[in-house]
Design brief:
The protein is globular. It has 8 helices and 6 strands; from the N terminus they run H-H-H-H-E-H-E-H-E-E-E-H-E-H. The longest helix has 19 residues. The relative contact order is 0.13. The termini are far apart. The chain has 2 domains: about 60 residues; about 130 residues, Beta Polymerase, domain 2, CATH 3.30.460. Strands 3-4-5-2-1-6 form a 6-stranded mixed β-sheet. Helix 1 crosses helix 2 and helix 1 packs across helix 3. It has about 200 residues and is of the alpha+beta class.
Length: about 200
């Protein structure tokens, strides 16, 4: 099998896993290698190529359902962002970029001086959360507060992950990605997306 054919098979399999099973890009690529019986050292496609494959998969197989699912997730993200405006919330990931389906989680960055203050805010909102450490967008370890939140239009419980960053990280958070897009958006940017989707 040529390297081009292997790459195509990897992208097809990984994009299906992202859309049909809600996997993040890294785990989807690793699972695709296993499913295709390829050597563990097989070069992985980059995230831009996988995102293009995910969009193509959605256009072919989910065009009738995905727009409503995406809108429902964006509305739920907005609800959480509006509950925590003091932390300058910014939405990222598939829900921001428009490739989310009902199986996708929501990722919101919070930017604040006191890393404990978002936890206090969640307690004040009577929100049950799980705190853990994850890798942030700069490759550093950050706190993530994970909530299970009901998305009524989808009748699904969705993972909402609040990544807690230092206030000064906001500048790096808005650096454009390899496609020249903003990698995340604030409340006003998300409202504009919802209006354009209406």
């Amino acid at each position: 099998m040529s390297s081009e054919h292997i790459l195509e098979e990897l992208l097809n399999t990984a994009s299906r896993l992202v859309v049909e099973e809600g996997l993040e890009y890294g785990p989807a690529k690793r699972r695709a290698i296993k499913q295709l019986g390829l050597p563990a050292r097989t070069p992985l496609p980059d995230n831009d190529a996988l995102e293009d494959a995910v969009r193509e998969y959605i256009d072919i197989f989910c065009a009738d359902t995905q727009p409503l699912e995406l809108r429902s997730l964006r509305e739920l993200a907005l609800t959480w962002m509006e509950r925590l405006p003091q932390f300058r919330p910014h939405l990222s990931g598939a829900v921001w970029h428009g490739t989310a389906t009902r199986l996708s989680d929501i990722y919101i960055g919070l930017f604040c001086d006191d890393p404990k203050s978002p936890e206090i805010a969640l307690i004040n909102h009577n929100a049950r959360y799980e705190a853990r450490e994850v890798t942030g967008f700069n490759g550093e370890t950050v706190s993530a507060l994970s909530i299970h939140s009901l998305c009524a239009p989808l009748n699904e419980t969705v993972g909402v992950h609040l990544m807690v960053y230092d206030q000064d990280d906001i500048r790096g958070a808005l650096t454009k990605d390899s496609k020249g897009r903003r990698p995340r958006g604030d409340i006003e940017a998300l409202k504009a997306l919802l209006e354009s989707q209406a």
